[in-house]
Amino acid sequence: MSDSNKKFYITTAIDYVNGLPHIGHALEKIQTDVVARHHRSLGENVLFLTGTDENSLKNVQAAEKEGITVQELVDRNSQVFYDLKHVLNLSFDDFIRTTEKRHIQGVEKLWKTCQKDIYKKTYEGLYCVGCEAFYKESELVNGLCPEHKKAPELVKEENYFFKLSKYQKQLKELIEKDELKIIPETRKNEVLSFINSGLEDICISRSKERAHGWGISVPGDPNQIVWVWFDALGNYITAVGYGSDEDKFKDLWPADIHFIGKGILRFHSIYWPAMLLSAGLALPKSIFVHGYITVDGGKMSKSIGNVINPIELVEKYGTEPVRYFLLREMPSTQDGDFTYEKFEDRYIADLSRGLGNFVARVVTLATKLKNRGSIYGSEGKEENEVLFAPQNLKLKNEIENAQETWKKSLDELKFNEALVAIWKLIGFCDKYIEQTKPWEESDKQGQVINDLLLALSNIAKMLKPFLPEASEKITKQLKTKRKSEVLFPQL
């Protein structure tokens, strides 16, 4: 049942552009894309947002290292992230850059609206440039940032602060009651534990000198730059008109789901909601937290040289195999491991020999039957239609079970489980072919092939949000009963 009036607003985190994309970026965008495509298929009015975070000190440092201006660096690298749309076949509707006028206007408005909770003071603290955040000494692991494994620098200056402590009780209640739903439950508990340890006010500006003059100036104080996280988090509202198009903003906010990685959970589940409460704005409905991708059991690291570039991966294997591996191999809310051996094993077993071989078998059988002038189905139906329900009750039940599990898994954002359900049905159909031997002429031959065509039609529909190209190619072959190019060539 479609609902074209129902809006569905979904976002990824915006990416720092001091470096190139890695497969962690690809994972988040592909997961979000699956949900966006699924909700479009339900007839909903979907807005899928992604973008780039360009006002970071990391970008300044990267530009200095290359000997180019910061603007040149962010323009060049932002384009690489935008180009993932084609590389990964993403269906995002908007791509926001934090250097855009609409964003700057919105952040300035947000700052002014939160003014009652902002004050200035001199502060000394431990600052991690990688996280763009201050840490308490108790939060460090052996004196190092828990995320970047580097010692933070001691910083002392006069900055603006936000009264985060004021919202401690309210945030706790909203999260406990799932009015701000955090998925999975383990991450919700992690956030509540942090809140219970006591929230302190946070520093939300940097001196112009320390920011190298790069970023959004604090309204009314050109000597201070808005902290990159206060700036960046605002993208979710500035992209839908906050500060530039209030009618659009009223129509689209709040977001239905923010997709983020576990390393930025605190910013999204504590700082961001507190900012929204201060501004008198609705909170996002849910925050979905995915895990990290390790490489051969270890953390991806430039220094180790094991960073996997999704663009190079797609050039070698194709877009759909990359989408499939990341969605099938990575548990949606936990860490998952990448190796080329695992990737190729999945490709061969699941795509080439699994789905690809099944499609080829069924379409070949259907083509032979069509060429002999046989008719599947009842009178009055065109021969290129897949007709009614399967006659085989076991197959009918398998299709219905797969659809039920697929829908439930998608609703719960368990992408790997939805794909397992589809491949279980493919496995059943392969056994059904072996048992019925539809290549042998019999009075049931036409019906058996019709059953298989119907199963394949349902598989194509379920694949659509995950592997849109394969789904389209299968659907085309079903209409023509002619084999086209091999879906997944052998490696």
CATH architecture of the domain at 348-480: Orthogonal Bundle
Radius of gyration: 26 Å
Low-pLDDT windows of residues: 373-386
Average predicted local confidence, pLDDT = 92
By helix and strand content, what is the structural category?
A: alpha/beta
The CATH homologous superfamily of the domain at 348-480 is termed Isoleucyl-tRNA Synthetase, Domain 1
DSSP helix fraction:
40-55%
DSSP E strands, number: 17
Strand fraction band?
Answer: 15-25%
Can you give keywords for this protein?
491 residues; alpha/beta; Isoleucyl-tRNA Synthetase, Domain 1; seven-stranded parallel β-sheet; four-stranded antiparallel β-sheet; 17 strands; 16% strand; elongated
What can you see in these coordinates?
The protein is an alpha/beta fold and 491 residues long. The chain has a domain at 348-480: Isoleucyl-tRNA Synthetase, Domain 1 (Orthogonal Bundle), CATH 1.10.730. Helix content is 48%, strand content 16%. The protein has helices at residues 23-41, 57-66, 70-82, 84-87, 101-113, 168-176, 185-196, 228-233, 235-238, 246-252, 265-279, 310-317, 319-329, 340-371, 393-411, 415-436, 445-463, 468-480; strands at residues 7-12, 15-16, 45-53, 94-97, 118-128, 133-135, 153-162, 181-183, 202-203, 205-207, 217-218, 221-226, 257-261, 286-290, 293-295, 298-299, 336-338.
